[in-house]
């Protein structure tokens, strides 16, 4: 099952930002060997043609997408594919006996009808939606142990859910009061070309987009509803910030009591005890996105306000690491029963 | 009173970003002549030493701060000075018979005790706080006609208040539900040096700061309270975005009815009819900051959400123009009985 | 010939950055009225659909490209079209009796064979190549008076030629020693989408491109050769800098004597006397691109080096203004016999 | 001599960008343990106060600068101190029996008089200038084996020298024709505050500075002179680019023959054979700075021009890694007789 004792991994979608970040991060994983980098659009070409930064690091031609061939070359597949593609591909990979960590959004929603409403594609077969374990590691990590199929959380949901769940679970915030003002760097839009990601249109600019229409909304609500034990509906806005990496969710909620910042710090530190990738900042301190850049951390801080009875929660991640490739590897670590930090000891790159 | 029929203007604080923007904008004002550029720190030096972009445009040495001398050279003074400085200087300028448009925050709050609580300086004398007309042009423009002293609104309050007032006045939003998530470019922090504005700390980074502690909060609440007729308290967060210019206020409020985006568009277009610097976007469209950059526009758009009963209002300005120098000139136009657009016909610079 | 005494202008290519900058700049021209904005790709749509910053400023649907119709609506046409398109369109516009300022590169080279070698398109008819006046205003301005057809210089050639010509003409620099290291903001690449202009690929990055292969090389050499009176060949490198606007040409040449920086300052100030858009900086001072941003200035500075016998000349422009739309208007002013600064009194936008 | 078999390292200047990058990179070095982080300005404070990205990664208070104490805690010291400070400190550290890798420029020039001319400080004692081994690893790596004191090359010299030396050594380029147009990200200016590094002054801007006056000039010339066997003098310009990390040296030289790009590729690949941190690109390809960001690579590409007989060489590094902290670790590896890549297996962070 392994190459020289290592787990063999294939990456589908190796020419997107999520795929290429998997390659970067897996270079230093002691137990995983990347044995196939796969791209439907550029099969046959050396990967360094499109990503010269990999020159001399991974000398390999891109493979095509063929489940049977993949099964011959790999034990696990990361599918960093566009939504709609994974829906069709993942069942074939699972049938071929592969483990799968899916980075698309196709298997995150348990309700196929809801998927079709927000994603505008046909949903994957219900059996696979049910099989998929939603891999928000610090919350549902124990569900990942030993399974074959993980649906990796979205970037916005990761930052948002890690920032909200302890307070929601503790009953400290009002379920119907949650407002999420999220901001992302541009790599989150993918490597496809469009006027929306043209440098001159983004630089020196700040845009809001998809207000209350983003497909990450039902994903967030599905988890919050499970935690709260009743239907939770949120207001959710996304903004595009002129930077490459980073997501910040600034979250607002009415408090059910007179909690201080220190109370929140203690609640969250207790909740995340033993989970090294969540760093709860001290009272009065909120994190900036650069403080986690290039790493798998999610940093969280709080500001409570006695004047309004609200708490403001700030949660930041690197959208391509903790929001995609890093958490996918963390999930594989949990699937395999390894330490969740294995191969992910990246200090944030600062500045 | 005029040089060749023009009003003579002095600018105190000419070596800050607000002051130097006043110089840029006033170059094309047909009725105003800048007769003195003033800086306490660099008096005697040519202004182009610190601002080489003004080479050949304004060849003038910086003057010192002496109210009697200013009165001999100018009819009106723009005080683009730090908070605390204007508190002492403006009364002297008014005593010397000058008209004043003050760009500091020193005369915006009517309650001296509240000023001292948020600004941590001694308040100016109460008589001057009362004399100052709060110059939010599109809302209180008629109060400016003929007066001698305008307190120019802050940058965040300008974007925020123009975005909230029509809905609040119409009774469409709940007074106790207002949450303001504001984002600013770095020029808003001024030209002083600090680690906070170091390029390498800001670039590729997004920070929240002064959550619920920003001195613009009481300014916003003072006006909203007046409009609402009862005390309004807001939740207010500011963020620093890696760009030079631009403010976006993303604002959330619970609605008192089932209003559509088109309803909001019509309400706001009616409210701002005849005020060309506010551009209300069509239903489903929200503005980006670059779309007003370099100009005196405030652009506003809406997203309503039947699922949550909330409206999201997005309001953008150029923080140095509509949020400072441009609105100051607009106020002077109103003071003088001129068209408010006079000398302010700047098309946004795009890209 | 005019609307209310104004010259009527049409802009072909109104949905590119050059075209939309013409619209911005012409808003404040006292003698020109934009009567048609033209786009082959978006005809029929309101221009503000693609450029919301123009909302309320120019309310006009885009027209199609029809020379006869244009002749009915306009007196002069700015063709801000891709290379290859102007080659075919401009002769038709001239035949229709219109004045033309062409912003493409199609009519800059006098030698059709050289055009085809560098541009890889068929050259326009030789008669039109000969008719076109190369509109480098501060050097050949007198040739523009009264003509019907100007070929507007390229962005790199404008910064480069204005920086080299006085020294070359004076015989101070060796003809065979000229090396030009040029850097541009991304708007110079146009508004078309491609991986090359994807925000995440440009931001936090610096690239060299088209080394010794850029189509502006023969344009630069053609003019330098005319000035020098013998064939001049240059080494020319272009770089893409993560900013929207601005070109800097850093130029190196061996000196024919022991000239000081002050000598260069005096030589250039004498050469450009009476040409307000060229600002020659004092000895020891070189300009930065932001110091001309949004304006029609070209700023030039010098560093001489006795150790190597070389001079380093730094020349900066805003690539969309002096490098395109601004110089095009300046050329029209010269064609019409107006002051060359007419309608171009823009102070640089700083910061 | 070691902590659990590891070499103990102290970092002086831990609150600068070079020092904090040493901390990041050393986290993953299998044979080194950071036992002291030292700062004269912030001694006693937790390092995460100034660098929150290190929260939970290195929990340690900053130590003061005391050579005797350092000798008790460490085996090797990295001095990432300002020029002038190392001149005094390093001799004390060496006397105390420590190994030293000095990242300041104080020990790079062999001639004290030349040091004083360019650095404007008193030179260190001549004995130490002579003792210092100039650690340009891929060129002088064999000199580092077993020594106690390395002077780490400057950022600009590293990119420049690695790009020039093989051609110079082979006699392919004219010694008196070398022109270096260098560009750097802003982290190279250090973490100190000044108007020069204010975000709003750098963003959307490109500046040239210290033309022919940069203190890295004599360092470059000293090495080129040694390689060439006769005095080499260069023209050298530095530019500040609106990005955090990255240096590009674009270098121009007259060729002594009719060499092709492929000739250069082969010459350089042969010269750098067995040195994995230099990646020579294929013919016709030049590297961009992002392609080495966060890593210890130096990538080099070529463009030759038969028209002018010149070659253009493009060399890029991450200024804080290969230009400072990374090469310092590489030097320590060589001093200790370890593989030079040990602990430096960082894939570039892209995008």
From TrEMBL, chains A, B, C, D:
Amino-acid biosynthesis as a keyword of this entry, yes or no, is yes
Keyword Cytoplasm listed? The answer is yes
- Classification via CDD domains: AGPR_1_C, AGPR_1_N
Instruction: List the EC numbers from the record.
Output: 1.2.1.38
- Compartments where located: Cytoplasm
Catalytic residues in the record: 155
Q: Which InterPro entries match?
A: AGPR, AGPR_AS, AGPR_dimerisation_dom, AGPR_type-1, NAD(P)-bd_dom_sf, Semialdehyde_DH_NAD-bd
Which UniProt keywords are present, listed alphabetically? Amino-acid biosynthesis, Arginine biosynthesis, Cytoplasm, NADP, Oxidoreductase
Catalysed reaction, written as an equation: N-acetyl-L-glutamate 5-semialdehyde + phosphate + NADP(+) = N-acetyl-L-glutamyl 5-phosphate + NADPH + H(+)
* Pathway terms, separated by semicolons: Amino-acid biosynthesis; L-arginine biosynthesis; N(2)-acetyl-L-ornithine from L-glutamate: step 3/4
**Occurrences of domain Semialdehyde dehydrogenase NAD-binding (ranges):** 8-147
Q: HAMAP family under this entry?
A: ArgC_type1
Per the entry, what this protein does is: Catalyzes the NADPH-dependent reduction of N-acetyl-5-glutamyl phosphate to yield N-acetyl-L-glutamate 5-semialdehyde.
Homology family: Belongs to the NAGSA dehydrogenase family. Type 1 subfamily.
Q: Indicate what this protein is called per its UniProt record.
A: N-acetyl-gamma-glutamyl-phosphate reductase
Q: Which gene encodes it?
A: argC
């Amino acid at each position: 099952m392994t190459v020289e004792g290592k787990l063999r991994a294939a990456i589908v979608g190796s020419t997107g930002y999520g795929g290429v970040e998997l390659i970067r991060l897996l270079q230093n994983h002691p137990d995983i060997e990347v044995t196939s980098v796969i791209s439907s659009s550029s099969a046959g070409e050396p990967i360094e043609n499109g990503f010269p930064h990999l020159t001399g690091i991974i000398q390999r031609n891109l493979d095509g997408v063929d489940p049977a061939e993949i099964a011959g070359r790999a034990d696990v597949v990361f599918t960093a594919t566009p939504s709609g593609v994974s829906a069709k591909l993942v069942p074939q990979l699972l049938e071929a006996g592969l483990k799968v960590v899916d980075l698309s959004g196709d298997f995150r929603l348990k309700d196929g009808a809801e998927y079709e409403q927000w994603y505008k594609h046909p949903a994957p077969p219900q059996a696979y939606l049910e099989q998929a374990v939603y891999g928000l590691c610090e919350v549902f990590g124990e569900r990942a142990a030993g399974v074959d199929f993980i649906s990796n959380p979205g970037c916005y949901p990761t930052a948002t859910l890690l920032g909200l769940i302890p307070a929601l679970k503790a009953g400290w915030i009002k379920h119907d009061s949650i407002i999420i003002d999220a901001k992302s760097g541009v790599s989150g839009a993918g490597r496809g070309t469009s006027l929306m990601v043209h440098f001159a249109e983004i630089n020196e600019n700040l845009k809001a987009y998809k207000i209350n229409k983003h497909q990450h909304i039902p994903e967030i609500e599905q988890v919050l509803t499970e935690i709260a034990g009743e239907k939770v509906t949120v207001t959710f806005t996304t903004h595009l910030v002129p930077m490459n990496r980073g997501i910040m969710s600034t979250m607002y909620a009415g408090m059910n009591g007179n909690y201080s910042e220190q109370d929140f710090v203690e609640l969250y530190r207790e909740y995340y005890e033993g989970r090294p990738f969540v760093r709860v900042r001290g009272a009065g301190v909120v994190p900036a996105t650069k403080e986690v850049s290039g790493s798998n951390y999610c940093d969280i801080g709080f500001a409570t306000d006695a004047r309004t009875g609200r708490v403001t929660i700030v949660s930041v991640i690197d959208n391509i690491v903790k929001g995609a490739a890093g958490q996918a590897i963390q999930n594989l670590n949990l699937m395999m029963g390894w330490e969740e930090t294995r191969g992910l000891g990246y200090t944030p790159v600062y500045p």
